[in-house]
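Input chain follows. Return structure tokens only.
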Amino acid sequence: MLKKLKKTLNEEFKKRYEKMEGRYLGLENRIYTTIENRLANLEQKFEELSELLKDELHHRKEQNNDKIEEMDGFDGAIDSALSDKVELVKGALNTTIKDAKEKVDQTVEEVSKKVKKAKKAVTGKLKKKKKNKKNKESSAPASIKKDDLTQIKGLGAKITAQLEQQGIVNFQQLANLNPSQLESIDQSIKGFTARYIRYEWKKQANNYL
């Protein structure tokens, strides 16, 4: 049962980790896609603006032949300024992409650490529970007399074995159980108190004394 519980918990943590990792990866992809699309749109707009300016310059050249040299110089300055602007925007967007990726990687790493820590804590609790169970199984002193509790009507071998883990191994102990002890045993053996009363196990146990 402990192995099954441990396997179930490990699978549950694995599923949660994969789900969270998938979310962050999806977020990372959306960030990159959005930024790349914006960068492409900006580049396209800069190119369109550059073409419009060039057309305007050429149009003015035709109307002002005496200023051709001056306009040629201005044309080159515009092209250079636009190129510098595009490079600045690219640099800023690349920095933003890099920062976003680092934050996503950092978050995924933190989540991974938390999952590992949780798995370690659960594993520790399972080991502790298993150890306590072994201690309970060997808690009954060898000097205590053991009776065949299956002689009592309604008390089978399975419940007898569970009672032995609780330290109840003879008729005297079964007959002397108080409400507090019954409540404690009922937490480990579901429905024990109800059967104890229904089958009058106290009375039956006293008959064997």
